[in-house]
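=== RUN LOG ===
request id: a7f3
mode: sequence -> structure
chains: 1
length: 214
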Amino acid sequence: MNKDNVNKWWCSLPESIRLKLSGHGITDILQEPDTSVQATLYRYARLRAVGTEKDKDEERSLLNEVACGLSDLALAGNNGMALEDMCNEDGEFLEEYQEQFDKFYDRYEETLVEINWAVIISHTGMPTSELIRLLEKFGYKRVDMDENKRIPKTFYTYHRGLHINATGNLSFHIVPQKESLGLGRFAVCAVKNGVGSQLGTDHAPFFFNASLPS
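=== RESULT ===
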């Protein structure tokens, strides 16, 4: 992901998230993370959203990298000093600054872990392939259309979008934006006595909060 796209993704995050990751509630001075930290955050967020058990080590490494980057910015901003001026000859923080850094790190780590990245990522531009991975992570199973027994929590591809058959009478749809026809990328269809009605939204949290466990 290039610099412009990383920054565009950062700006697409909810303001409340950007404020938290800029130091709101943690430091007195707010500072947006630089592009390298934003890029690492992007990778961490996507791994948190669609990663599996085998990705846990990488996820933890990225979490540490983001928390360290944010803590460095907070430390420098709050003290009005360059990081190297807070270190000894061996490049280690002097005791008073190490204590500050540790406090910042703990708060940022807690904040990053608490954020529901599945909802955030799905709302800020997730391709259908990753939406499928996200659904698989929450227990949805792939089935062929002609083998569908109307078992809850199944899905299959449908007209280049994604069709999830949740029950015999209720289904969820994720379709490409240009094919949503005004209904919204995320749609719910209810059928009764052969008659169907649909509601849709482009606001992913409305869809995922209802259809995925927390």
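=== NOTES ===
Strands lie at 141-142, 154-158, 161-165, 170-174, 186-192, 195-201.
The chain has eight helices and six strands.
=== END ===
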